[in-house]
Amino acid sequence: MTTYAFFDFDGTLTWKDSFFRFLVETVGWPRLARGGLRQLPWVLGYGAGLASPHTAKEAIFTEFFQGWPAGRLLAAGREFARDVLPGMVRPAGRRRLAWHRDQGHVVAVVSATFEFYLEPWCREQGIHLLGTAVEMTDGVVTGRFAGANCIGPEKVRRIRERFPLRAGDHIHAYGDSRGDREMLALATEAHFRPFRRPRA
């Protein structure tokens, strides 16, 4: 029997949305304000249920990063993972993740968050990552995703694709939103918003 621990990232392990913070750190407030105004219809459409998370998120990513050299984006991701992400992670979440890892459990972050900045952080923690990948062609960021946004049913599909789940395995899942519903339903033990006690 294998024990697995699957963690959502933004809002579960972190205090707040990491992509917005990445935008602030990478492109700055003036550029963020101009691009945000252009992409406001997508944001409003997603909030009203008229646009899919994939479409809205890809439109925003395209606005800010299409045409970037791939090396520039990857370097920005590594810097963000080193300098900013550690301060965004809830201490209780960090402790629980480390506990699973130290118990010898198979631990993975399963998140719609972008792999290009989550991967360095997960590698430092010694855990697996299933996230949202972006397309880079001939050394240039296209603005499109390389596959589906890792949310909702896609989380379970990616888990089953990566890990040989069997009857008798014990599965912990940690999430905080409707995008984690299917992953939580897969679990033996589902933990919904487990680290939201004050300063947890």
Structure write-up:
The relative contact order is 0.20. The protein is globular. Helix 10 (181-186) links the parallel strand 6 and strand 7. The chain has a single domain (3-192), classed as HAD superfamily/HAD-like (Rossmann fold). The longest helix has 14 residues, at 70-83. The protein has ten helices and seven strands. The mean pLDDT is 92. Helix 3 runs antiparallel to helix 4 (53-65). It is of the alpha/beta class. The strands form two sheets. It has a five-stranded parallel beta sheet, with helices on both faces. It has a two-stranded antiparallel ribbon with strand order 4-5. It has helices at residues 18-27, 29-38, 40-47, 53-65, 70-83, 85-88, 91-102, 115-125, 153-162, 181-186, and strands at 3-7, 106-114, 128-132, 134-137, 140-145, 170-175, 189-192. Helix content is 49%, strand content 20%.
Class from secondary-structure proportions:
alpha/beta
Helical proportion, percent range? 40-55%
CATH architecture name: 3-Layer(aba) Sandwich
Count the E strands: 7
Q: Report the end-to-end length measured between terminal Cα atoms.
A: 31 Å
Q: SSE string, helix = H, strand = E?
A: EHHHHHHHEHEEEHEHE
Q: Could you say which overall geometry the principal axes of the C-alpha atoms support?
A: globular
In CATH terms, what is the fold-level topology?
A: Rossmann fold
What is the CATH class? Alpha Beta
Helical segment count: 10
Mean pLDDT: 92
Low-confidence stretches: none
User: How much β-strand is present in the residues?
Assistant: 15-25%
